[in-house]
Amino acid sequence: MMSLMTQKTIPAKQPLSDWFRRNVAKLVVAPTFGLIIFFVYGFIAWTGYVSFTKSKMLPTYSFEGFYQYIRLWKMTPWNVAMENLLVFGSLFILIAIVLGCLLAIALDQKVRAEGVLRTVYLYPMAISFIITGTAWKWILNPGLGIQSLMQSWGWESFAFDWLINSEMAVYTLVIAAVWQSSGFVMALFLAALRGVDSEIIKAAYLDGASLSRIYLVIILPTLRPVFLSCFFILTHMAVKSFDLVVALTGGGPGYSTIMPANFMYEMTFRRNQIGLGAASAMMMLATVMAIVIPYLYSELREKKNG
Amino acid sequence: MKSFTQKLVVTTALVSSIALGAISAQAEPTAEVLHYWTSGSEAKAVKALKEDFEANGGKWLDAPVAGGGGDAQAAVLRSRVLSGNPPAAVQIKGLSIQEWAEAGALGDLTKLGEEEGWDDVLPPLLQKIVKHDGKYVAVPVNIHRVDWIWANPESLAKVDGEPPRTWEEFNALADKLQAAGITPLAHGGQPWQDGTVFETVVLGMGGAEFYNKAFIEKDIATIKSDTMKKVFDQMRKMRGYVDADFSGRDWNLATSMVMRGEAAMQIMGDWAKGEFIAAGKVPGKDFLCVPTPSNGGYILNSDSFAMFNVSSEDDKAGQALLARLILGEKFQETFNLYKGSIPARMGVPTDKFDECAVKSMVDLQSASESGALVGSMAHEIAASGAIRGAILDVVTEHFNSDMTSDVAVERLAEAIELAE
């Protein structure tokens, strides 16, 4: 309202429509911007504040310093959750990218029925983690799935009991998550491979380079942005992972497979420890920040230079 | 003169209509009931309450929140209370009642309790659960017994076994069963199930005083005592009695293992009875219910409705009516027949209840008199969510690893201290 009035006082031919034309983009974005400021950043700030209080069942607002953070890092389940995040996250990201990339290269060799294969590999992405988790729970259950199948076929000594072994159960999460996500990674790589200039490849052929050398030295380096996007998409999936754990292992055996998100939920909603839950949520945010900020920084700097 | 009469008539009509309105408003007890009984026998049971409430002239506003065994409901409740608009009656239990009462969110039913004589019909332990500072803030709906062994008589007969009365007998029986190729213990590897077994062993090996010292007083010396180490030794033994695929199994799947004779026994609260009954099994014939070895002890779990602070007269009348009905003999009987639990008030006629429920009622009375009645830790009666969670973390980690009992008690003491 204020700006409208000030605009009117300025003598011009069509002040209002001019102003409108200049600011239409901002006006369109403004409501979403406001909502995001409030509901995303506002609540991040609120959670941040609550993490410095002794809030239990209901939030309280007296400042208590790092009390909750000190408690958090003394708790064995939280340390287990962070270790799991490290193991699960790194293996999941690495395997999904390598597998997705190899699948894309294989499909790029002008294979027959490529459309069908592409769909087959991509479909797991359409399923929610809850379904993936439940299906793999049955497949990996020693009494129902692969192990009992192999044993009933006569391979009596076959054992595959990762799901019920506290040391190995976290790797079953990797299996299920990779199964679900590698098709998606493949699709990203395939699209990028199709975009590589065929002239360069032809030239390399003429120079007598082998196929593997062409891929390693020429094609893959041009796919660097795709590697980066895959890395960031998979990283945030790993940090957020909650439903897969709930469906596949229920955090068990014991609490050997819980992830930070499960810990946060348990503390905030089941154990009436809002302050502690908020502190764990802030640690998760810090984990994502530690990865995203260097990326954003390098991206922005490159744009300025370029 | 005419106009005066007219005025008088009109005024009288007005006044009487206002008075009538006031009366009808008073006769409209309203209760918004927030609960998570949304499936099967529980939904039937809550419907019985609703019909009873409406038959007595009440207006029932149903607010069911499905899922998560009350987690989802807790989130709804928190936001309703924070926004200053709490529901009239909420299904919460155990120490949550005390936590909400301390936050000043609960109303006071003491006057009604005196009129209805609740002090005389409720077991003293249950009174402690639903009272805060000596005032009634909630009403109990039922009593579940946690320390049951559900046994398959055929499996026991195969090894000439008798239901165990001590934990030594339990171990001897389990060894025999194992030798005969029957899984002795049907169990699901979820923290709360591990905790359920754990608390029955704590009561059995330590007795009620030890149990309360450990879980309610959180006395460090008790937690680190040799008795507690023996409890963990027994848990290690129990781990050997479960089958290989127990991880993450739901409790009702474990119950059906007992039903099919794949396993001989399950340690679980009396909600397991509902599974047997639903499968057409007869108590005493197709399945046995015996208390876990504890020398006359009894672990109690109880659902209840807490009455929140409401301002309108309708709501207050609704709360009073609801509370009176819930603790009435009629509702206690119908509800608990549906739910498989036993009435929260003593002295309800036993003739319609099955063998297991009657046994539970008799044992409750004697345990209450002898002081061997304790609240469940695993089901948040004796311990708050935070303490219970911390205990369960250690119990479940011990059960699923090769942790020694010495380490386990140290870890237990540490976890409880951190949780407070």
TrEMBL record, chain B:
The UniProt record lists the keyword Transport: yes
Primary localization class, coarse: periplasm
Keywords: Signal, Transport
Signal peptide residues on this chain, from the entry's feature table: 1-27
GO cellular component: periplasmic space
Subcellular location: Periplasm
Keyword Kinase: no
Top-level taxon of the source organism: Bacteria
Function: Part of a binding-protein-dependent transport system for a sugar.
Protein family: Belongs to the bacterial solute-binding protein 1 family.
Protein's name according to its UniProt entry: Probable sugar-binding periplasmic protein
Lineage, top ranks: Bacteria, Pseudomonadati, Pseudomonadota, Alphaproteobacteria, Rhodospirillales
